[in-house]
Design brief:
This protein is α+β, with helices and mostly antiparallel strands and 97 residues long. Helix content is 14%, strand content 31%. It is built from two helices and six strands. The protein has a six-stranded antiparallel beta sheet. Strand 3 and strand 4 form a beta hairpin.
């Protein structure tokens, strides 16, 4: 796997696993409440530098502001084709990147 990079820098269509959040406990709590927890697998749906990052997580779409997406550390998944976050929650199925 590649190293950890900010979620906001991952290209569209890519699956990634969240590795951590670099922020205050208040910010981390807000992210956790949206399902952005360590080892959660997400797919980047849209990542345009002038707009929010749109991602798919647990079968739902979530829009993150650019600054929020840049404080989330993630790793790109090597075997992206085995994931489909629209149909299955890969975290509950025990699937890893």
């Amino acid at each position: 796997m590649a190293g950890q990079i900010p979620l906001g820098l991952i290209r569209e269509g890519t699956y990634a696993v969240i590795k951590g959040i670099n922020g205050s406990s208040r910010v981390k709590n807000q992210m956790y409440q949206q399902g952005l927890i360590e080892n959660a697998v997400v797919q980047i749906i849209k990542n345009d530098p002038s707009e929010p990052v749109i991602l798919s997580i647990y079968g739902s779409r979530l829009a993150l502001g650019r600054s929020a997406a840049l404080i989330i550390a993630a790793e790109e998944c090597e075997n992206e084709k085995k994931f489909n976050t629209e149909l299955v929650n890969p975290n509950m199925a025990g699937i890893e990147c």
